[in-house]
Amino acid sequence: MANIHILGAGAVGLSLAFHLSGKHQITILTRKSKKQPFYYQENALKEKIDAKVIEVSSLRPQTKIDTCMIFVKSYQLNDAFKTIQPFLSQHANLIISHNGITDLSTISKVLTSTQSLFFISTSRGALKPAYNEVKQTGIGDTFFGACNDAAKNKVSDVFDSLIAESILPSAIHHNINLLRWQKLMVNIAINPLTALEQIPNGQLLKPQYAIKVMNLLNEACLIANHLGINITLKQALNNAYTVMRQTRLNNSSMAQDIKQGRQTEIGAICGYIVNEAEKLGLNVPHNQALLKTIKQIELV
């Protein structure tokens, strides 16, 4: 049994906290004091998440965290890491997850040679009907990969002891760059369109969206291939449509952000493709258009 701290009480963080709590001691770190417990609902069954809940600000200098999972928005990642970094133990495991792609070197260069950085990618569907509740809306694959040398040396041991029996189905992914790009492709296909249309993921299976999805992913594959990431359009489409089916009842995080007037992760999704295209001197008009449109909505 491990002691796992989870920073980020969003849908993914709470969903995985529930599944991990069956075999591990869980502490959920929040920014504000919340006295009510967290609950997880699957079908008609609602259960209390067996976890201690504390404010990040209440951590003491002598606190040492052996395993920390950070589940926040891509634009919140660096600040979240800065908050938790002083408390990481000498051989800590830091596990992060977010939509899109960000530069992880800002984190990896701060970690010591004995502190491990991992990335976890999941297509499990979940939404939060209330602050302290999470509802499962779909079962998908979860992949776990190493991001630095320390993590590569023990990825199998960490996966087996923390993830394998708690989060199903799950597996180790040995190519972290490919894993992050695969997640990005799914994000590109689903998040912006469901946000604009305010529809569940499964609605994108309708023929009327097929050309839009294909154009977005065709541009993403063009950039990926120029950067040495071997993903074909067929593979990207298959992955995206698989996740659409698995999470057909789920509302994407971006759709929920737009509905609630919050900042989205479009900068790390379509914005990442646009930025890389500019460096390469290539045009990606479909991703550019969605980036501009979502940004305009954020300003309203």
Automatic annotation (TrEMBL):
Boundaries of every Ketopantoate reductase C-terminal domain copy: 175-298
Entry protein name: 2-dehydropantoate 2-reductase
Entry GO CC: cytoplasm
Role according to the record: Catalyzes the NADPH-dependent reduction of ketopantoate into pantoic acid.
Gene3D superfamilies found in the cross-reference section: N-(1-d-carboxylethyl)-l-norvaline Dehydrogenase, domain 2, NAD(P)-binding Rossmann-like Domain
Catalysed reaction equations from the record: (R)-pantoate + NADP(+) = 2-dehydropantoate + NADPH + H(+)
Alphabetical keyword list: NADP, Oxidoreductase, Pantothenate biosynthesis
Superkingdom field: Bacteria
Entry's Gene Ontology BP terms: pantothenate biosynthetic process
Pathway per the UniProt entry: Cofactor biosynthesis; (R)-pantothenate biosynthesis; (R)-pantoate from 3-methyl-2-oxobutanoate: step 2/2
Statement: the UniProt record of this protein carries the keyword ATP-binding: no
Organism: Pseudoalteromonas phenolica
Sections of the chain in a coiled coil: none
InterPro entries named in the record: 6-PGluconate_DH-like_C_sf (IPR008927), 6PGD_dom2 (IPR013328), ApbA (IPR003710), Ketopantoate_reductase (IPR050838), KPA_reductase (IPR013752), KPR_N (IPR013332), NAD(P)-bd_dom_sf (IPR036291)
NCBIfam families for this protein: apbA_panE (TIGR00745)
Short name of one Pfam family: ApbA
GO molecular function terms noted in the UniProt entry: 2-dehydropantoate 2-reductase activity; NADP binding
PANTHER family: 2-DEHYDROPANTOATE 2-REDUCTASE, 2-DEHYDROPANTOATE 2-REDUCTASE-RELATED
